[in-house]
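task queued by scheduler; priority normal; single chain, no ligands, no partner chains; default sampling; output format set to structure tokens
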Amino acid sequence: MPEVYCKHHAFKGELLDQMLEAGWYRMMHLMFTTDVITRETGDDFDVHWLRYDVEKVPLSFYKSRNFKKLDKKYHIDYVPLHEMDIDELEELFARYRLHTKFEQATDLADTLGGYSPFFETFVTTVRKDEKLVAAGISDLGKDSIAGIKNIYDPAYASEGLGIYLLMCEIRYCLSEGLRWFYPGYIAPGYPNFDYKIYPAFTEVFITDSQSWISYNDWLAGQNNLKQ
């Protein structure tokens, strides 16, 4: 399936939930879906959309030694995008972009399709002594959120702030009574996205049946196909 796009005046609340559940995801100010993606190498990879069942996240996930250390070191907040200092966000993105080895948009506004309110977007902020060192951009539905972009200051790369943001976003779901977290997709053979896989609470979208199954069941099916 080639990329398919949907344009609407607002992807919020139940509409966002429904589209995420049907295997759609945000690209700029649109929603799109596909089952194949071409990377910067020119190679094509199969796309498999993911979601986390927040109710199945084990307590051990939040109690790991590293996360406890980061909780003590940094201040976390959840801020509507329209209340953020956009210049501060863009400066953080510029530092992050120079650090990454894969193709990036020129600025955060390009990633989001501008800052117009097509989505109900909030930012998970991570601060050290009031300095913004990491930020997670997420869209809010009625019973779910979609993680769009996590960025961090390269000076703090060794802290694992990308994964820490993911944990903080999941904790946000719990605090707000939201069931689902959509982190995007994986592409077997392209390991850059494998960090999103947590077998205990990850589900994979099956396009043919328009349904979700556990990651472990999906992996078993993939292994059977190879035999």
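post-processing summary
- The mean pLDDT is 92.
- The chain has seven helices and 13 strands.
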